[in-house]
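Bug report (template v2)

What were you trying to do?
Predict the complex of my protein with nickel (II) ion.

What happened?
Run completed; filing so the output is reviewed.

Input:
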Amino acid sequence: MEVNFSLTAHWINAQVTDAKLLIEMGTEKDNYLYEMDEKTLETLRYPIGRFVSPERITPEQIEDWIRQLEAMPVRYENLVAKLQENQLETPYRPGGWTVRQLVHHVADSHHNSYIRFKWGLTEENPIIKPYDEKGWANLPDSREAPIQLSLDHLRAVHAKLVFLLKSLSRAELKRSFIHPEGEVVTSLEENIGRYAWHGNHHYAHIENLLKREGWL
Ligand code: NI
């Protein structure tokens, strides 16, 4: 992946490889090549760690995840609704998505997740349809559209999703779907946790950027 963007430097070129992030930066006077180590990159990418499903998922855990999903749209709204255009166009890390792309991505991703819950509830172990996240994030509605569209979208999708999830029986929560990559079976209850994590994960990307920039 290669992304070009300008900050205070004259130009910056960031390349993410599997293990490290290479940043070339040019100012009026000098050019720099900065190699970010694997640990720093991992922390920037996974500020709250990767999702790990608990070995045993309790009803209390599920309730807590649902509460997190319920509160999420307002938390996002409070975090980003007042940001200026230049702030929305700032990548959360060198070579990463901008705040605008992150907000649109969360709405798109949770829209897909809502559909996966419905597939899982109405079909026997359906194989879900993955989507190209990076491709979607580079479509015009992710790169350029006002974030309010996705904040509204997220509010509607989460309201409907939470309504559905609160109505599910223990047996329905144990239903599952299959991801075609590696044929991984995911239960609906685990998927609730995954998307609570996913919302918090991207929220932390934005919050940490705002803190670093002194914008909070
Ligand atoms: Ni994501």
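What did the reviewer find?
Residues 71 and 158 are 9 Å apart (CA to CA). Strands lie at 2-5, 11-16, 21-26, 31-36, 176-179, 184-187.
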